[in-house]
Amino acid sequence: MKRRTFLASGAAITAVAAHQAWNSMSGVAQSGKVLNLYSARHYDADNQVYEGFFKKTGIKVNLVEAPADKLIERVKSEGANSPADVIITVDAGNLWRIRQEDLLQKVPTGSALYTNVAANLRDPDGYWFGFTKRARVIVYNKARVRPTEITRYEDLAEAKWRGKVLVRSSGNVYNQSLVGSIMAALGEAKAEAWTKGVVANFARKPEGNDTSQIKAVAAGIGDLTLANTYYLARLAKSSKAEDREIASKVGVLFPNQRDRGTHVNISGGGIAKNAPNRDAAIQYLEYLASPEAQQIFAGSNYEYPVRRGVTKDAVLTSFGSFKEDKLNASIFGEKNRVALQLMDRAGWA
């Protein structure tokens, strides 16, 4: 895969990286058999997906990769002339925003996606679909916390955890979606009270990503944190002994198993509104939900598959099975903006 950097049009965008996928195969692909993919995913495992799709269909993937906000601004600035066929991003909040910006078109109702992707993991009107699941769990220091001491997200606000909770900033979309799901479960007033309780329990000012929080818990800077499971799986599978040592010091707790279940977010995408290669776009989205692609996501990037019957990596399996919150992703995605306002009022920096 060759990489090049270019200046994107539109004042809101500075530079994004574009990747011409599988140039070595360009002589094999038929004229016009291309897919222009705009993706906010940044995982090496996705290269395997592009290669598998090419081998299966002969359609070459042209990849533009950037954070979700820059992709959104790029597609908006390109307007009706946008070459984007498929837009992929992480988190339901971003997917909800992309639809609200009118950048997607509905997937035909006859598509296999409606069968292969559960209703709670897709837009109710068929504009976007989830292709991987991310369980946002409580990660705890094994030497300092007994897993029976905390069983729900709500417990993170209890005074017993004062000075012991580590989190990412309120600007992190994963946390916004989690708070959005809590708003849906408890109502806005109780969710705000919970948020204030969590803030009162911070061990330090929010900083870093999920991996940073896990490392800080292992180091004893705090006792508990919120993280997506694949971050811990990466540490456990790392070639570095120090990463594996960190993973061995922490445990995974799936919250709310006696009521609504653990919050599950997604990465997903849909057909761009002005897709010039619409048929290829449909094929690509359907391929993402195929057993072959789902196996790559589950085995190489340690994400939970959206399709049943797919074998997960052994580390992911070792975390245990769990009950999922079946709240439709569009609901907590829509609540991201209000969730951020609520977090800001609570002092969640």
Give an overview of the whole structure.
The chain is of the alpha+beta class and 349 residues long. 38% of the residues lie in helices and 19% in strands. It is built from 14 helices and twelve strands. Strands 1, 2, 3, 4, 5, 6, 7, 8, 9, 10, 11 and 12 form a twelve-stranded mixed beta sheet that branches. Strand 3, helix 1 (45-57) and strand 4 (60-65) form a beta-alpha-beta unit. Helix 5 (173-186) packs across helix 14 (336-346). It is globular and about 60 Å long.
How are the secondary structure elements laid out?
Layout: E1 2-7, E2 15-20, E3 34-39, H1 45-57, E4 60-65, H2 68-78, E5 86-90, H3 92-100, E6 104-105, H4 113-116, E7 129-141, E8 165-166, H5 173-186, H6 188-200, H7 210-218, E9 224-228, H8 229-236, H9 241-248, E10 250-253, E11 264-272, H10 278-288, H11 291-300, E12 304-305, H12 314-318, H13 329-334, H14 336-346
Parallel strand pairs: 3-4, 3-5, 8-9
Antiparallel strand pairs: 1-2, 2-4, 5-11, 6-11, 7-9, 7-10, 7-11, 7-12
Helix pairs in contact: 1-11, 5-6, 5-14, 6-14, 8-9
